[in-house]
Amino acid sequence: MTYISILKPSLTPLNFCPVLRVFHSAWWQADKYYIQERESDFTIVHPEKGILLLEVKGGKISYDSINKSWYQNQDRMKRSPFDQAREIRYSFIKFLSRSSSNLSRACIGQCAAFPDVDAIENGLPSEAPRNILLLRPQLKDINLID
């Protein structure tokens, strides 16, 4: 299995914080049984704390606990945003493990962000713990450095 790093040529970090490097829409290709493209909406890199892969869903996001389905602007999503974030994380870890980069030993986490949502009604499924979910209130007061 060969993993090839392919980033968009215009990909440059958003340097709003001197310690963090934030990449928007970073994607890579993995050659397993067939070529698979993977993309992280935002990849946030801290040199000491690790890497956070952020899946962002805009608009009205809701969860129907009876049908176990996620909705974006009343359209049923094909997949849970948390499943997407988890799959992207595993793919990224596998990608890094195939490279000679020291990043393969980094702490790598995933998170979902719903910037247009103040609160999730009807509760959240077990796949969606609150500590990996950012809503509009948390994004307003985000503290980038402890």
UniProtKB/TrEMBL annotation:
<dbReference type="InterPro" id="IPR011528">
    <property type="entry name" value="NERD"/>
</dbReference>
<feature type="domain" description="NERD">
    <location>
        <begin position="33"/>
        <end position="103"/>
    </location>
</feature>
<dbReference type="Pfam" id="PF08378">
    <property type="entry name" value="NERD"/>
</dbReference>
<protein>
    <submittedName>
        <fullName>NERD domain-containing protein</fullName>
    </submittedName>
</protein>
